[in-house]
Design a protein that fits this description.
Blueprint: H1 7-13, H2 16-34, H3 39-59, H4 62-86, H5 91-118, H6 126-147, H7 159-171, H8 176-202, H9 225-232, H10 242-254, H11 257-279, H12 292-296
Helix pairs in contact: 1-2, 2-4, 3-4, 3-5, 4-7, 5-6, 6-8, 7-8
């Protein structure tokens, strides 16, 4: 992707020329930071340039569109450089940059689809739309794979390569349609390759899940017959003898559904009233109430 994040690998793996280029980009980023330009400003400017470029493409000025596409690619590499120079590189900036790339791609390929629809190739206007759709699948595969802990990178047609061939199709627009067909085929192959790569990584990785119909109890939940009926399909007690179990199953099989639900709701209502009476302050319980024989007693053990 043209997002300024590939520089860390090229500087580490390439030779002195790549490190010198990285130093020049860092100097440019530092100069932009001194001018008060942040990485978000560069990203927003890149999106606005893509919007303007889509209008230029739709109007048919393809050579001008190629020049604007090159400028937009250079700006897209500067946001990461500016963020590193300012020390503001963060996950929020990476998220904003990725979303801005998708929006810019939509405008660019939409402008090309408009150009083909109003020109001499109305049937081939769906080619840019198809390329955009498959490119979105490639980006989604990478994002989903990384969220699951796998590696979803790689492939022949990443965003940088797609934009290069996109610019080549506008530069030699005499053979634009064959180039777009080739781009669609290569992009589809990249999407399939990433899918297979992540599929192989995820093979054999199982996620532990509870059995169907069984839910784990959370701390603080109150056991009740209604929850037991809803989660297990039965309100029978957990432990029953053989005779009690048989009688329970016979009664459950002969009773209607409305009767069983009414019994469950009545039991719930009775249980809640009993709990409310027990929790009411100042109300004596049955065990603490004085009996009739105790009321007969007076001081000294004599009755009245």
């Amino acid at each position: 992707m043209i997002d300024g994040r590939r520089g860390r690998t090229t500087q580490e793996q390439a030779g002195p020329s790549a490190r010198a280029a990285g130093g020049r980009r860092h100097a440019i980023g530092a100069r932009l930071v001194r001018l008060g330009i942040s990485a978000d400003h560069v990203t927003v400017a890149g999106v606005l340039l893509a919007v303007a470029n889509s209008v230029v493409i739709a109007s048919g000025a393809l050579y001008v569109a190629c020049a604007l596409l090159i400028v937009g690619g250079l700006m897209d590499t500067l946001d990461g450089v500016v963020a590193k120079a300012a020390g503001t590189a963060s996950a929020r900036g990476a998220f904003f940059d990725s979303v801005a790339d998708r929006v810019a791609d939509g405008f660019l390929f939409g402008g090309l689809a408009w150009y083909l629809a109003v020109g001499h190739h109305p049937r081939e206007a769906l080619l840019p739309v198809a390329i955009l759709a498959v490119g979105s699948v490639i980006s989604y595969e990478r994002a989903k794979a990384e969220s699951l802990g796998f590696s979803g990178r790689g492939g022949l047609m990443e965003r940088a390569e797609r934009l290069i061939i996109f610019g080549l199709a506008m530069l030699v627009h005499v053979v634009m349609i064959p180039i777009l067909w080739a781009l669609l085929v290569l992009t589809t192959g990249t999407a399939i390759g990433r899918f297979v790569r992540v599929w192989r990584q995820a093979s054999g990785t199982a996620v532990a899940r509870p059995p169907v119909g069984v839910r784990s109890w959370r701390r603080g939940r109150v056991d009740s017959r209604w929850r037991q009926l809803r989660e297990t399909g039965s309100t029978a007690p957990a432990r029953l003898s053989a005779g009690q179990g048989a009688r329970w199953r016979n009664r459950r099989s002969t009773a209607t559904l409305s009767t069983r639900l009414r019994g469950v709701l009545n039991a719930e209502h009775a249980g809640s009233r009993s709990a409310a009476r027990a929790a009411r302050p100042g109300r004596p319980t049955r065990s603490s109430r004085p009996t009739r024989s105790s009321r007969r007693l007076t001081d000294g053990g004599r009755t009245r």
